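Aggregate trends can hide what the representation actually does to any particular protein. The sequence in question and its structure tokens are set out directly beneath this paragraph.
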Amino acid sequence: MKTATTGQPSCSIQATLDIVGDRWTLLILRDLFRGVRRFSAMQHDLGIARNMLADRLGRLVDAGVVAKEPYQHRPVRYDYVLTAKGLDLSNSLLALMAWGDRWCHDGDAPTVLVHADCGTPLEIATRCPACDEPVSPTRIRSRSSRSEELVAAATVTTFQQQPTNGGAL
């Protein structure tokens, strides 16, 4: 659903999927996080057609998720690097990876991510910044960020039973 005033998706998940929501784009992002920066290396690693790779990289550049940095001038060739906006996708990719490890590989992760400084395997957790407690998906609720809708949402929440999906999204 798009908003009437901006034409933008009213859901942040939809807005994100409009930018990164296809298989090739997510795999390109995975490669970029792994340090694969050159077009030819990405094409070789992914086995993707040149035109598809060029299209997906172009979309990521246009969205400000990736930047092109020339590494050769005759002919001009580029490294593709994640911008701050692209780096912010890290947790999303980590969550997809953790889900795949658990449900597609029976908990036997094909790749383990570790802290670069000490080598300890990383954990993915959602924590409350106020009480520093871990928060399970069933303990997450959503509410509108618009102040006039907060009162209405609080009133509706008072009369609803607990949603079967945890109510997070």
User: Anything to note?
Assistant: The two ends are 15 Å apart (CA to CA). DSSP finds seven helices and two strands in the chain. Residues 155-161 have pLDDT under 50 and may be disordered.
